[in-house]
Amino acid sequence: MRDTKKEIAVDESELSRQLEYMHIIREKNDMFEHETGKKKKFYSLAMGCQMNAHDSEKLEGMLDEMGYERTEEETEADFVIYNTCCVRENAEQKVYGKLGWLKHYKKDKPDTVIALCGCMMQQDSVLQTLRKKYRHVDIVFGTYNLYKLPELMNTRMESGETIYDIWQEHEEIVEDLPSIRHFHYKASVNIMFGCNNFCTYCIVPYVRGRERSRMPEDILDEVKNLAADGVKEIVLLGQNVNSYGKNLDEPVSFAKLLRMINEIEGIERIRFMTSHPKDLSDELIETMKDCDKVCKSLHLPVQSGSSEILRRMNRNYTKESYLETVRKVKEAMPGITLSTDIIVGFPGETEEDFQETLDVIRKVGYSTAYTFIYSKRTGTPAATMENQVEENVIKDRFDRMLNVLNPMIHELNEKMVGKEVMVLAEEISKHNENVLTGRADNNALVHFEGNKDFIGKLVPVRIIENKTFYFIAERI
Ligand code: 5AD
Ligand code: SF4
Questions:
Q1: Do domains 183-295 and 420-475 have the same CATH topology?
Q2: Cα 103 to Cα 251: distance, rounded to the nearest angstrom
Q3: Residue nearest to ligand 2 atom 2, measured at CA
Q4: Any idea where the domains of the chain sit in the sequence?
Q5: pTM of the model
Q6: Which residue ranges have their beta carbon within 6 Å of ligand 1?
Q7: Tens digit of pLDDT for each residue in 240-251?
Q8: Given a cut of 90, is residue 13 above it in pLDDT?
Q9: Spelled out in words, what is the top-level CATH class assigned to the domain 4-165?
Q10: For ligand 2, atom 1: residue with the closest CA
C-alpha cells in the first residue's frame, strides 16, 4: 500500500526544488533581456492525444515562469520542445523528419536548445537512434519526470552536455506545477496517469506505466481554482477513467468523483475521456444521467466489432456486451451522442471479422469515429502475432469503413437540424472572422455568426444546416 503522507511530502519538496531552478533560469533570462532588449522564445509542439496536449500546457507553464515567451514560429525559437507520441508509427516518423530539419537550422543558430520528451522517449530503440543519428538534440526526458524540465535545463546550461534523463517507472504525482491554458474558458484536468489494460496492440502501458490516480481532494481543489479563474468547461483525462480511484488507499469511484465535481460552482460543463467499455458501470450511467453538468456525449472506443479479435486484443468485452452497454447508455440518456476509436487490420482480421465491425458501426450510430490503420509496435504482443494483414487489404477495408461511417454520421446529424442548443463559443473561425466555432453539450461542432465578445460564453442557437462533420446555426 502507498504511503500517501510520504508521497505528499516528496511532492512538495520536489516542487520547491524545481521552483528554485525556474528562478535561477529566470534570472539568467531577465539578464539577457536587459542586455539585448529581447526575450528568449520557446516553441512547443504536442503530438498525439489530449494527455500529451495537457502535459505540454505544464511544460509551457514552466517555460513561462522561466521568462521565455511563446512563439508559433520554430525559426524564431531559442528553445524548441517536442512532446512526442508513439502510439502509431507515423507519429514517430514525423519527429525524425522534424529533427532532420532542425539539424540544418542549428548549424545557423547553434545556441538553440532542442528538447524531446514524452512517450516516444520511453523506448530504448528510440534512444539508441537519437544517440547515433541525432546528436544535435540537447535534452531528452520521458513521461515520468516531466516536472524536472527546469532542473534538466539548468544542468544543460551549466555542463554544456547532452542530458538524457529517462525513468522506467515512477509512483509520485507532483502537484501544482504552473501551467498555461490555451483557452481561458475550458481546461483539462488529469485524474489519473498510466494504464493497466495491456491491449495487445498498444504501447501506452509500456511508456506511461501503471495506473496512478490523483487524490480526489487534489482534483477538486484544481477544479475549484479553475472555476474561480473563469473556466466553464473541464475535461477529465485518464487512459481509462472508469477505473479511477481503485488504487487509492481509500478507494473512490469515478462516478463519485463526477458527482463531487458536479457540485462545484462556476463549472458549467464536464466532459471526460477515455472510458473503457469493459468497466463502464451502471453507477456511472446513473451518475451521468443525474448530473446536469455532465455532457451527454460519451467516447467509448470499440476498436473492433469481432469478439474473436477483441479477445486477441485483450479488450475483455465482446461485441454483444459492448452493444448491451450502448443500449443501456442510450436507454438512460436518449439523445446522447457516442464516439469511438476503431482499428482496421489487426493481425488475423478476416473479412468476416471486418464485417462485424461494420455491423457494430451500423447498430450504434456514432456521431464521430477516430479510425486507425493497425500499426505494428515493437514490444507489444500483437507485433509478433501471425497473419499480419496485407497493406492493400487494410487500405481497402479502411475505405469501405469510411463509406459506411460517413453517410451514417450525416444521416444521424439530420436529427439535429431545427433543434435549439446551447453552444460554448470557443474561437473565431480560421476561415471567416465573422464566424464563431463552438461545441454543443453533445459535442457537436457548431459554426455561427458572431464576434469575439461571445468567446467563452454559452450561447443559445438554432441548428439550421448539417455539414456532416459540423453544423451551421443561427443565434436565437
Ligand atoms: N495501431 C493503430 N491504432 C492504435 N491505437 C492504439 N494503438 C494502436 C496501434 N498499434 C489507437 C486505439 C486507441 C487510440 C488512442 O489509438 O484505437 O484507442
Ligand atoms: Fe492502450 Fe488499451 Fe490502455 Fe487504451 S486501454 S491506453 S488502448 S492499453
A1: no
A2: 49
A3: 199
A4: 4-165, 183-295, 298-414, 420-475
A5: 0.91
A6: 87-88, 201-202, 301, 303, 341, 343, 372, 374-375, 377
A7: 999 999 989 999
A8: no
A9: alpha beta
A10: 202
